[in-house]
Automatic annotation (TrEMBL):
Keywords: Iron, Iron-sulfur, Metal-binding, S-adenosyl-L-methionine. CDD domains: Radical_SAM. It comes from the Bacteria. InterPro entries: Aldolase_TIM, rSAM, rSAM_sf. This is Radical SAM domain protein. Its cofactor is [4Fe-4S] cluster. GO terms for molecular function: catalytic activity; iron-sulfur cluster binding; metal ion binding.
């Protein structure tokens, strides 16, 4: 899901606690004061955004401690040489000093997103032709070390909220806030056998910092694991945490899904998964629009997509809306040279057609 790591709207009803008063300028966004800065559907790795890389601890040339030891908890530490502090264009998660957790700073959105990557093996059960995961291969997530993930998240949160993370990375004052935690990595997260435990771990760690209700929680998924009971149990917790799901839907025809996502999947199956997901957790659909071999998707393809959405609306399937994306960066798949961005007007026009079907739309050209 690297291609579309993105951010949710903040919870609206947020009261300021003593903790947040204390931390007002130390990394936690107080929801309600920044609606205009948060843009659901924004891709934080599009032009102008910073991907902060955390190289391995033994980085030559000396390092800057990224994480610290917390009382009673061994927190994984990492280090970073000054020359590797920030990278504007590097998408790689491979060199991260942390296995599962990575920070992304979005200039445009004005804050920090902490990503959770459950697929450090760059394996996904889909192969979307626009995917930006390097060396993507077919497969699933390896066993997740949930204890390590918890330690990484706790260490990074402590560093951001109580340490000098922002100073070290030279983050501008107006961006010194955590916007969200996003399960979004180099493959499909709902395939992880430990998905439910991962959600529980995120819940536990973020509660320790008083974050639920004050930052966003986003799961970015192709929906393939939604019907597994442990995933559904995890989604219930995710919803209770204030989380939402961004569910990939690039086409509503079998041929289109095969062409774009390289999976054999009937639209009815996708619809069933969307319905199951939306019942459990607030769900946005996430759609990438692009030209393939010089042409946008065909009129019948577009009509099928819009009819699919109309069907969801008519049947009361409570999706929140559609996040429409253009191609922010080049694909890292063999089809890359066949893909091109569509003009912003094309996305706007398609977005207007979706709105006519009764759904909200947010566009990131
Ligand atoms: S579903 Fe898998 S192949 Fe498609 S964009 Fe996400 S990570 Fe890449």
């Amino acid at each position: 899901m690297l291609a579309y790591h993105a951010h949710p709207m903040p919870p609206k009803d947020v009261r300021r606690s003593a903790f947040f008063a204390r931390c007002a300028n130390r990394g936690v966004e107080r929801a309600g004061n920044s609606q205009s800065r948060r843009r659901p559907g924004a891709n934080p790795e599009s032009a102008g955004d910073l991907v902060i890389r955390l190289p391995p601890g033994n980085h030559p040339g000396g390092g800057i401690p990224v994480s610290r030891v917390l009382t009673g908890t061994r927190v994984v530490s990492s280090s970073m040489s000054a020359s590797h502090r920030l990278s504007v264009s590097d998408h790689s998660r491979d060199s991260a000093g942390l296995r599962y957790v990575y920070p992304v700073l979005s200039r445009r959105a004005g804050g920090l997103s902490l990503g959770i990557n459950l697929n450090p093996n760059n394996a996904c059960n889909w192969r979307c032709i626009y995917c930006q995961v390097p060396d993507l291969r077919r497969g699933g997530a390896p066993a997740v070390d949930v204890v390590l993930l918890s330690r990484e998240l706790e260490g990074l949160l402590a560093d951001v909220l109580e340490g000098d993370f922002f100073e070290r990375y030279g983050v501008p004052d107006d961006q010194r806030r955590i916007r969200d935690i996003a399960i979004s990595g180099n493959g499909e997260p709902t395939g992880a056998a430990e998905f439910e435990q991962v959600i529980a771990a995120i819940e536990k760690v973020t509660e320790r910092f008083g974050l639920p209700g004050r930052i966003g929680f986003v799961l970015i998924t192709n929906g393939s694991g939604i019907e597994r009971l442990p995933v559904q149990q995890g989604l219930r917790h995710w919803a209770a945490l204030g989380g939402e799901v961004w569910f990939k839907l690039d086409s509503a025809t079998e041929a289109g899904i095969r062409r774009i996502n390289n999976v054999h999947l009937e639209p009815q199956t996708v619809r069933r998964r969307i319905a199951a997901c939306a019942k459990l957790c607030p769900t946005w659909l996430q759609t990438c629009l692009f030209a393939l071999d010089g042409a946008p998707s065909s009129a019948p393809e577009q009509e099928a997509y819009l009819a699919f959405l109309s069907g969801l609306v008519c049947d009361g399937i409570p999706v929140r809306g559609v996040l429409l994306y253009g191609l922010a960066r080049p694909s890292l798949q063999p089809e890359s040279s066949r893909l091109a961005r569509l003009p912003a007007e094309a996305l706007e026009a398609f977005g207007a057609a979706i709105r006519e079907r009764g759904l909200a739309v947010r566009i990131t050209p």
